Amino acid sequence: MTAVGIDAIEIWTGKLKLDLAETFAPAKGEAPEKYTKGLGLEASSFPDTYEDIVTMGANAAKRLMDRKGLSPDDIGRIDVATESAFDNSKPVSTYIAGCLEEVYDGDFHHANKGERKFACVAGTQSIDDAYNWIKAGRHRGRSALVIATDTALYARGDPGEATQGAGAVAMLVSEDPSVVELSTHQGYGSADETDFLKPNQQFPSVDGKRSVQVYLARMREALTDFESVAGRIHSDDYAYFPFHTPFPGMVRKAALLGFRHMTRDTEIEDELATEIGRQPREEEYEDWEAYEDAIRSYMDALKETDTYNDWYARAIDPTLTLARRVGNWYTGSVHVARASALKTAAETGRALSGEKLLVGSYGSGAQAEIHSETIMDGWREEVEAFDIDEQLARRYDLSFEEYGRVHDAHNHEKERELEEFTVPSGEFVFTGWGRMNERK
Ligand code: CAA
């Protein structure tokens, strides 16, 4: 059977940077370590005032099409995943297609266009849609362009403000992919939740603490559901575990929970037993509270062991290197985590072809999805083409006052004359509502 999966990836970061330790922490009167150690973040990417979800998505897509030598005729669908859409009728993919048609011969009249919304999990759902479309044989030899693009901004003063970010990830889904083959093995954890909402409002209403618990609960369900299809997950079966990363500290919590789950009733649990005891079993406790206390103590001991820390350093930490520098990109976040792991492997000369990834996507509202992927032979060449380090180094470093003005500008004030902090060059820029985005 023909392999279907991700053939190419391009990442576009917002062109401004908010440094959390140097700029944000002093202005908030907080210790820098709250952000750098507690949340695990160094900086957020911010969009300049001429950037938005359309320009960032179109710029990532343009780079991808140019690098792969594609024309509109090679692409049979454009799916955009975003939770920052500004149009309740037209999908963002039509705006992005409009931009791309300005610069390529040919057009996307033949291409199906759509917009997916389920908070941050929508990027992965769009990839699933593309996979299903190809597997169903409806693609007529064409590939799908999937773009996850978001400006993840919170209201000023919201605890989520430290986890903001902005950027786009463009991915080409096709037959005989170069980066990863998607498998049919998937697991879900889904429930109606109200911890993170944006009902017709620009910034989310968030119960941050509860959102962390909901993330963990849905991921736990998705793990169990995945195992019902694919069998037991073992910590050594996967090279990396790229997970949705609202902030690296969230993944640290999920990783600990996942490691306990994966090592239960295995040789690893037996080995650890001499050091920290066996994992508590529910039937050994009189009530749920006592059981939960015992689990908490076990987890506290587990996170101090070399066994756990070695696994974390090998399989989790490399997925977080980009997130630390860019913050939360909502729909793009888990795809940044995959890119981050592959990039680290390429830099350290690690051989990965044929190895597997366990990918954990999550969207508030809420749904977790876990699936596995197999790394293909062409992964290294694709990943070495990333220019994300150069893009990150070029970001304009905002002062706190400037940050406030940029935040206001993105709060629907884009019609007035706005100061710009960087000079656009060979890229799509926002020129006004209802007008075509131009390439400067
Ligand atoms: N040194 C070291 N660590 C410190 C510290 C210091 N000086 N000060 C605080 N910390 C630690 C805290 O102990 C805490 O770590 P633990 O959770 O491991 O205990 C961490 O830093 C954060 O501190 P607080 O919990 O006090 O931070 P907060 O309450 O101000 O904000 C938050 C945390 C509620 C998660 C907030 O960032 C938030 O609302 N974020 C947005 C919602 C979010 O991202 N939720 C994640 C799940 S939902 C999801 O994934 C979807 C999505 O993309 C939004």
Automatic annotation (TrEMBL):
Domain Hydroxymethylglutaryl-coenzyme A synthase C-terminal: 195-408
Entry annotated with the keyword tRNA processing: no
Pfam family, one: HMG_CoA_synt_N
This protein's name: Hydroxymethylglutaryl-CoA synthase
Family matches, as NCBIfam families: HMG_CoAsyn_Halo
GO MF, any single term: hydroxymethylglutaryl-CoA synthase activity
Lineage top rank: taxon: Archaea
Keywords per UniProt: Acyltransferase, Isoprene biosynthesis, Transferase
Single GO biological process annotation from the record: farnesyl diphosphate biosynthetic process, mevalonate pathway
Domain Hydroxymethylglutaryl-coenzyme A synthase N-terminal residue range list: 3-175
Family label: Belongs to the thiolase-like superfamily. HMG-CoA synthase family.
Record-linked SUPFAM superfamilies: Thiolase-like
